[in-house]
DNA sequence: CTGTTAGCGCATTCAC
DNA sequence: GTGAATGCGCTAACAG
């Protein structure tokens, strides 16, 4: 039992006022060299640690930031959590991780609680139903940075993947290999990524002069089951697609399963391209080609942006919130092959 | 700009003292029914939200708990993060998630920072090098619950998987299918799980009257590479094992890869059993049998234990810290088969 | 049942 | 360069 050594204890031990102690330990040359050193030593000996609550109450800054995501299963969120956490800690911030399950009500409650804790900032993948709350927070001086999804209701600093371009590049790649019937498994239209990836796919087809065939598209929730269902649906067609573009990342497992069910070999029988890289894809046999959406870069940029606005000096309130896009990259491995002539 | 409405604003608006306002909103019948209702209404109208910092400073309780894990890649940690987060939030606690990367120094810093924030409690998978700090925290009134790994240096409440029994059960299963040469890929001896799973494996062999052959064991860090290396090593033997028990969970990907390299079919050419279930295993083709170490149950129990000690009434300081074990379960899918006669 | 008074631990203004 | 005093927002005695 030793804890709870306060600034006053340090001051008493050093026979100075508590104010001096505070200044010495702040260490910005507000005290004499000697007392500063002395106080520092005594504080260390006593094991003094400033009470973050008291400090926060006084300074109105907690060095806490909230990170709000839908889950930790999705690879992007996982990367986001790890990267943001690390980046912020390097700058002396603690990360409070919260999970909304993509539920607006939970999200609302979480935002409120985070505000109660007086977090200094917030990085969030919004559900899209609490934009007003986020905007209020932001304009009250708590910077909010959105990631992965945009909240359509309101203008806010947002870091997104370049999904239209990524899906375009992926489809294009397949097209260049000679594929004409490309099945697409994608997220629902209600989500930014679902919509944007579909649009990239369509644009690539159009440019290639291929008519868009809605029956080649299977949209569904972000779950393996979607992949399995989509796979079956597409494979049951008389004119089976020669390539599958799995642009709903969580579906990949289901698609792999569906392909195995039909004893279809990748890439001999069918080409396979996925969206969003993850460790499993590279270890797969054959290793699966992907459009890497750049989760790490997104996380880093989100951290950068927030950190930037967190710095005391800066803070031009909002020259209209900017949107950032992280470019996608095609990573060719061994799951795509030219269509047989 | 509306924020920062304080208790005083509410009190003034209601023309009562700030203390009365506090009591009314606390709502434990310390005020008259009518004023309570009135204050509650006014507070809502004004959008009053208590300042968690001020409250924490006063009450010495923050409803913050720290969750410290090595990473978010490991399935157990992911489950831990999701479950603990959800369970605690249901009880009004926020979770501060921190990642140590299994590095004692980072861990030490994290523990200190968490203490600075005056977290009410801590759930941690310890590196094993900061036991003293954890013990100090605990005996200072901040309950600490360890999970997944035990800190050998010190007695503390700990929730672990029943790894010896799990490994025993898994090995036993393979034995009962007639396998005699069972390759084991496992974590390093320095880790609790590495040691314990190895011991379970050995015990099962002994009971079956089979001599332990160290060359059938490949121990290594928790990475896919370990699986690949182990797989190659074991498969290169003249007397190739007829079954592989992958008890270092992260290695599974590498093992799958290694098997594919050699064009070995599971379960026809070789049986495969993994430790720790994860979504991918069930979706694999063939679906992979596993010893489920019960990550969810562990997370729930850890949350239960901490919550229990967080309740105001309870707190018999420490009748010698207890250790809990979550039983493992064998889940049979389609990756194991009797050895050919 | 309600108001007054005192801090929680710290940073900071104002004197000296 | 240092000390005394003030208050951040809230809860908890202590009176009335």
UniProtKB/TrEMBL annotation, chains A, B:
<dbReference type="InterPro" id="IPR028082">
    <property type="entry name" value="Peripla_BP_I"/>
</dbReference>
<feature type="domain" description="HTH lacI-type">
    <location>
        <begin position="5"/>
        <end position="59"/>
    </location>
</feature>
<dbReference type="InterPro" id="IPR000843">
    <property type="entry name" value="HTH_LacI"/>
</dbReference>
<keyword id="KW-0238">DNA-binding</keyword>
<dbReference type="InterPro" id="IPR010982">
    <property type="entry name" value="Lambda_DNA-bd_dom_sf"/>
</dbReference>
<protein>
    <submittedName>
        <fullName>LacI family transcriptional regulator</fullName>
    </submittedName>
</protein>
<keyword id="KW-0678">Repressor</keyword>
<dbReference type="InterPro" id="IPR046335">
    <property type="entry name" value="LacI/GalR-like_sensor"/>
</dbReference>
<dbReference type="Pfam" id="PF13377">
    <property type="entry name" value="Peripla_BP_3"/>
</dbReference>
<keyword id="KW-0804">Transcription</keyword>
<dbReference type="Pfam" id="PF00356">
    <property type="entry name" value="LacI"/>
</dbReference>
<keyword id="KW-0805">Transcription regulation</keyword>
């Amino acid at each position: 039992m030793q804890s709870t050594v306060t600034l006053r204890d340090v001051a008493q031990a050093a026979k100075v006022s508590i104010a001096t102690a505070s200044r010495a330990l702040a260490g910005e040359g507000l005290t004499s060299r000697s007392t500063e050193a002395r106080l520092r030593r005594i504080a260390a000996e006593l094991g003094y640690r400033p009470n973050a609550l008291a400090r926060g109450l006084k300074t109105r800054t907690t060095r806490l930031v909230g990170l709000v995501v839908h889950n930790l299963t999705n690879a992007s969120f996982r990367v986001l959590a790890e990267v943001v956490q690390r980046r912020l800690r390097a700058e002396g911030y603690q990360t409070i991780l919260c999970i909304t399950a993509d539920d607006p009500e939970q999200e609302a409650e979480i935002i409120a609680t985070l505000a109660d804790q007086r977090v200094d900032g917030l990085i969030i993948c919004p559900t899209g139903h609490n934009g007003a709350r986020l905007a209020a927070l932001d304009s009250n001086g708590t910077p909010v940075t959105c990631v992965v999804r945009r909240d359509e209701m309101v203008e806010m600093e947002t870091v997104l993947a370049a999904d239209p371009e990524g899906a375009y590049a992926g489809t294009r790649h397949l097209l260049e290999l000679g594929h004409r019937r490309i099945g697409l498994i994608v997220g629902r239209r209600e989500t930014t990524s679902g919509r944007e990836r579909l649009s990239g796919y369509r644009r690539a087809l159009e440019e290639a002069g291929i008519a868009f065939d809605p029956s080649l598209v299977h949209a569904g929730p972000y779950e393996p089951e979607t992949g399995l269902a989509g796979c079956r649906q597409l494979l049951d067609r008389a004119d089976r697609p020669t390539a599958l573009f799995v642009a709903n990342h969580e579906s990949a497992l289901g698609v792999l399963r569906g392909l195995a069910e039909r004893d279809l070999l990748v890439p001999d029988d069918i080409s396979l391209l996925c969206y969003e890289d993850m460790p499993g894809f590279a270890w797969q046999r054959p290793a699966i080609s992907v459009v890497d959406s750049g989760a790490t870069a997104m996380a880093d940029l989100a951290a950068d942006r927030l950190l930037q606005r967190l710095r005391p000096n800066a803070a031009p309130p909002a020259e209209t919130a900017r949107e950032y896009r992280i470019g996608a990259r095609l990573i060719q491995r061994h799951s795509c092959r030219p269509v047989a002539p």
